[in-house]
Input
Amino acid sequence: MAQQQKIELQDLDLSQLVEVKKQLEDELSHLTSSFGQLKQAQHRFVDCIDSCKSVNAANNDKTILVPLTSSLYVPGKLANVEKVIVDIGTGYYVEKTTEDAIKFYNSKVDFVKENLEKIQATVVQKQGNLRSLVDVMQYKMQLQQQEQKAAAKA
Output
């Protein structure tokens, strides 16, 4: 992990503060985007769990719609309600029992949840840093305006 440098905001001039602010805003934007993507992934995994739970003996030989694309379906029948094919990532698929598939997706949900918590903590920290930075910028701008007024009177 990259080593963090501690920067005293009071030691920076306004132009440097503006650059640091831009960098913090970019980091926050990226983190917020990542948070949203992880949230979507978490919802997909929860949907997979719900789908696994709906594959049961009561639905054996029922007609279902099988998606070929996001908007194209063909009719099919559930021939085996004991096993499902699970996308484990990077184009690999594994046959699992519905119980094992639910365990797999629960572990994915937990993993994503941990990462969401880490990102959220980082976002809160960066937002605090940004607020502090803006406060220092406002203080320095007020000082600059006061100096200009004093110079104009002299």
